[in-house]
What does this fold into?
Amino acid sequence: MAAVERRLEIRAGSHAYPAVVGSNVLEQAGAELARAGLRGRVRVVADELAWRCHGARLLEGLQVAGYAVAFTFIPSGETAKNLATLSEVYDWLLKVGVERGDCVLAFGGGVCGDLAGFAAATILRGVPLVQVPTTLLAQVDASIGGKTGIDHPRGKNLIGAFHQPRLVLADVGALATLPRRELAAGWAEVVKMAMILDAALFAELEAQPAALLDMEPALTARAIARSIELKGQVVAEDEREAERRMVLNYGHTIGHAIEAVTGYDVFLHGEAVAIGMVGASLLAERMGLLSPADRARQDALIAALGLPCSCPGLRPEALWMPMLQDKKARSHRLTWVLAPGPGQVALRRDVPTSLVDAVLHYLTTSTESPPVPV
Amino acid sequence: MAAVERRLEIRAGSHAYPAVVGSNVLEQAGAELARAGLRGRVRVVADELAWRCHGARLLEGLQVAGYAVAFTFIPSGETAKNLATLSEVYDWLLKVGVERGDCVLAFGGGVCGDLAGFAAATILRGVPLVQVPTTLLAQVDASIGGKTGIDHPRGKNLIGAFHQPRLVLADVGALATLPRRELAAGWAEVVKMAMILDAALFAELEAQPAALLDMEPALTARAIARSIELKGQVVAEDEREAERRMVLNYGHTIGHAIEAVTGYDVFLHGEAVAIGMVGASLLAERMGLLSPADRARQDALIAALGLPCSCPGLRPEALWMPMLQDKKARSHRLTWVLAPGPGQVALRRDVPTSLVDAVLHYLTTSTESPPVPV
It folds into this structure.
């Protein structure tokens, strides 16, 4: 396959950092680090599975450029994203030695990026961070924007810091080993970005959902790069999550609640967000913001990607508690992110409780998926 | 005693926060929080001893202004400044509930301020922090500048974050219960600020060291406020510790090493810094930067405050390792902070190793204190 490469400049406050999306980015890792001005040693914190599949390419890419590299593994899976694993990463970093000129390189999915990113944010009060996301979800979402952190028994991401990466390397080739279900869940976040921010991207996605699942290289790299670009723009306007950044929460209010009540082991994050977007579009339609036709378009794209559109069997009342405990809730009032149409977004704090109840009831009883377009 | 109050505005990047120094500041805590725009609930993380002595005054000051307050204790002493205590503080904050509009109030010495500050920096990726230092050292040093963190078995403050407080309340009355030795160690940091940044303050201190140890109210408040102001100015120029902030490390290169090799339980931090300043002044004199007369003035003030001027019995070679491991060391080259005279500072990376050896030898063999001025 032909080499594909797109370079983006992500702004974050007074700084900016490059994000490189392409098919042979791992092999160029060392050259990219040098280009980004990172001259110290590289401390790699890697997801164990990702390392087994793609670690050799990264290692070669770093060593060919003369970098001194040390690496450690963290277990794959969300359960590793806790204070105990973080403590082990601290111990390892201080054992192999780390100075402020060295960088921490996170190699893996969102869990690894969040945890290693938080370690980078806090070791010696902060060392440079390089994000090398190896899942679609992490490439389009977690690696951009500077959010790092770990989970707590009382909830996800309750402990963390904002720490912008110095460089993001998204190797599209690394996605080839992803299970199809995980790939679809990653595309859910891209659908989200398109739905709230970019009607043209939305049209491109809905024109060829099968090609997305088949990872057609040019389309894949283009969609990933555009999604990164969009997220970068939102984050640049609002590094520390005041109002603007909340738009990224589209589909997440209900999505997070679904994940919480199912113990995070029934739905993948992107699947829960897909159901949340179906819920949000129904809210938007009932609020008179979104036309039935546009709602159908969104839901059809979600279904065409093989993503779930409902969560039958859950109790609507159970979903309320985690929604109110969300760390973005202010004094128990929910802000809903709604999409009045592809590429449009609105924040609403006036959604009636009864309407939310009705939507939750629908999501938890419906077993029909929207029709898949032919 | 007459009420004394001084208000300062500390700049930190694009923000600024007030520091209030005075004799009845705890009683006004609620009014000051309101004035600083903090309207949420107050989560107090308190040093156990400080709370027993002065907690009632703080609690009254907050409750009279209508604040909802919850409090927890951490054990007194540096050994509590670790990941285990931090984990307990996280658990407590999430149990009593914390939202982004609530604040964490650190009530105690530097250990409490650093640990509670780090919890505030990282819970929900950051909530507002109020520093209420109750020791002299914390009032003039730790509470200003936004450094927060915890220790690791491999070294002090190796894990942490920059998180500027929204408000600092320094109640001079709280110092009345401090042991005289701890008071003297606190004044060591004030001597440091004067020596590198303010010749007039230095002259004021050396004119009446006994009044400092007797806590003469007007002098005490004036010296504390000036020291806070000076530190605030340095930090404002360099929030994230590049070159400028390094001046604050005067006396700390050797001081930290002395603390490290003695396991942090022989000298108080300020005492180790005092010895470090004696060492730094000797280096500066030998480098031809500092006149013998000015060196004698500094050392005489240190001695007059009852602070140690040497550390007989330690091995000079043992002091080297922690100096080179300091997180500010860059590729094993030491930057020395030297004072060419009261109110003057110079950063030097050209201090010969042999000269440092000679100074370490002097400090570890000398048992003479400089003469106390009559």
Summary: Residues 6-177 of chain B form a domain with the Rossmann fold fold (CATH 3.40.50.1970).
